[in-house]
Amino acid sequence: MSGAPPPLGEGRSAFHTRRRLKGVVFATLCGVATLVGVVSLAVLLVDVVIDGLGELDTAFLTSFASRFPERAGIKAGLVGSIWILVLTALFSFPVSVAAAIYLEEYARRGWLSRAIQTNIANLAGVPSIVYGILGLALFVRALGFERSVLSGALTLSLLIMPVIIIAAQEAIRAVPPTIREAAYGLGATRWQVVSRQVLPMALPGILTGTILALSRAVGETAPLIMVGAVGFIAFTPEGPMDPFTVMPLQIYQWVSRPQDEFRALAAAGIIVLLVLLLTMNAVAIVLRNRYSTRI
Amino acid sequence: MVRDNVQMSQSDEGADGDEPVAPSVVSQLGLRKDRSRKERLIAGLLFACAAVSTLVTVGVVAVLLGETVMFFSQVSPVEFFTGTEWTPNFRDQNFGILPLLAGSFMVAVGSAVIALPVGLMTAIFLSEYAGSRLQGVLKPILEILAGIPTVVYGYFALTFITPLLRHFFPGTDVFNAASASIVVGIMIIPTVSSLSEDALRAVPNALREGAYGLGATKLEVSTRVVVPAALSGILASFILAISRAIGETMAVTIAAGNLPNLTLNPLESIQTMTAYIVSVSLGDTPQGTIAYQTLFAVGMTLFVITLAMNILSQWVLSRFREEYQ
């Protein structure tokens, strides 16, 4: 890389050897640093699988929580998480995509759209527990939704909306301007351009961002503790106004017990949760890779 | 640039309001009026959705501020910000937030010590050293690391890292700040690495080639040309990662404990602001009591700190950005 230095004595060549050596050391250090993340993930996954695989069977998936570890299962959490997933998607997706369309295709570039944009960036950095406090005061108390699936889903919708909006904006921005210009040239109105040209092309990107945001919602615990999801229920919600629990909360309840049997249950719960999340991530990545080359 | 022009031309069109009416057939005029009414309705609906995000901020501030004001009508701000004891649930109530603040900052510093160097070096490796095939393997792995729920990190800290720590430091508490710091550090590595990598990639190749042309080695190009050129993005990623560590809840609740403890020893049990909020909402604290209001006062403190850091990170990004055109 540094080429052949002019032979000006041994001091010079030692200098170059040292430079090269430093380079090798630095490259190795960077490689090792990269491995820290990779190895941590591997150790974490192996640790969880070793602890939890023994508990994982169909009885675990079809039983409710119990004081007796050998009878306990994650059914309430699993069903609750799916309720939360579906309702959160229903609430957050349309509003977020509409907001992204407004900011990219409609908003005049001025202080108002800049303020909205800055606000969204800031909201994305607000700790999830603060959303929990908002959910507690607004949905549980002020609007009287009580400790229900609805309160939980609305709270998580607010939490992931900034994430979906930012992802959707990027996807919409990636649609080439020529497409819009051609449609306008044919006499299309703005909404026709957006709904028939821009959105279909941006959809894979929007969906990828949405799925990743939803997988974040499914893994959230703290805001749902705030809105009062309970860890110990022996039924599944039948409607949006019923009390509920979710898998991460059930896992937290089991982790906080000192007995080893409950720790093993927590590990088994984590395996189920991670399988769900990794499936969602895989779908998102496939979507991204399949359609990213088209534009 | 191209995008800006398009947006400009669109907004000019929007500024005119009504579409120009062609002096032609009457029925066509009716169709146009219909169309423009529908268009305006849609634009209004889309704007309403964009405005929801603003309402969320207003809601957060209003909710936090309302109860915080009630709290400060009973506890003096001086006691709150300078008191060294936090015992809202004891008979002898003390409302000094310093132990909670110290807990949060200890975890933030501890995790930063791990995540900032590791994350930055990961970013340098990915952007300057790794080939495209290696990147294709490593980047999804880091994305998965970023997607692991925090409750899982809490489990990992309590059942794997804490026993390890107690093996090497026998006096370590079961719940301790060090274990929480380590997992939070691992958790925020992807935040640092992905944002820093973006910043490093944005440095134009001409700078690298110029340095190579002067005989620099790859190490010199990376550390003395590329990293300084990307410094604003790297610093922004650092601040954002630390802000995430301060706001992190479940891993610290599970691993660091629930003992408000003003200490500098990472092997002792502590309580962070976030862990305190969780502990209040898990118990039966009746609405309207001062113990209930502490939840909002602590939440407000947490919100202000993280918001300030996020704004700082955006400011660093825009203020010190090097423009390459």
Helix-residue proportion of chain B? over 70%
Largest sheet report of chain A? none
Shape of chain A: flat
**Overall outline of chain B:** flat
Please state the CA-atom Rg of chain B, rounded to the nearest Å: 26 Å
Write the element-wise H/E pattern of chain B from the N-terminal end onward. Answer: HHHHHHHHHHHHH
**Which percent range describes the beta-strand content of chain B?**
under 5%
| SSE string of chain A, helices as H and strands as E | HHHHHHHHHHH
How far the N terminus sits from the C terminus of chain B, by CA atoms, comes to 11 Å
Kindly name the structural category of chain A: mainly alpha
Number of helices of chain B: 13
Number of strands of chain B: 0
Rg measurement of chain A, Å: 25 Å
Helicity of chain A, as a percent range: over 70%
How far apart are the first and last residues' alpha carbons of chain A, in Å? 38 Å
Write the topology of this structure.
The complex is a heterodimer of chains A (295) and B (325).
Chain A: H1 10-52, H2 58-62, H3 75-106, H4 111-124, H5 128-142, H6 149-173, H7 177-185, H8 190-219, H9 222-226, H10 247-255, H11 260-291
Helix pairs in contact in A: 1-11, 3-6, 3-8, 3-10, 4-6, 5-6, 6-8, 7-8, 8-11, 10-11
Chain B: H1 2-15, H2 26-72, H3 77-82, H4 98-129, H5 132-147, H6 150-168, H7 177-201, H8 205-213, H9 218-229, H10 231-247, H11 250-256, H12 273-282, H13 290-319
Helix pairs in contact in B: 2-13, 4-7, 4-10, 5-7, 6-7, 6-11, 7-10, 7-11, 8-9, 10-13, 11-12, 12-13
Task: Report on this structure.
- The complex is a heterodimer of chains A (295) and B (325).
- Chain A has 295 residues and is an all-alpha fold.
- Helices cover 74% and strands 0% of the residues of chain A.
- Chain A has eleven helices and no strands.
- The longest helix of chain A is centred in the N-terminal third of the chain and has 43 residues, at 10-52.
- The two termini of chain A are 38 Å apart.
- The mean pLDDT of chain A is 89.
- The termini of chain B are close together.
- By secondary structure, chain B is mostly helical.
- In chain B, helix 4 crosses helix 10, helix 8 (205-213) runs antiparallel to helix 9 and helix 10 (231-247) packs antiparallel against helix 13.
- Chains A and B meet through helix 1, helix 3, helix 4, helix 5 and helix 6 of A and helix 1, helix 2, helix 4, helix 5 and helix 6 of B.
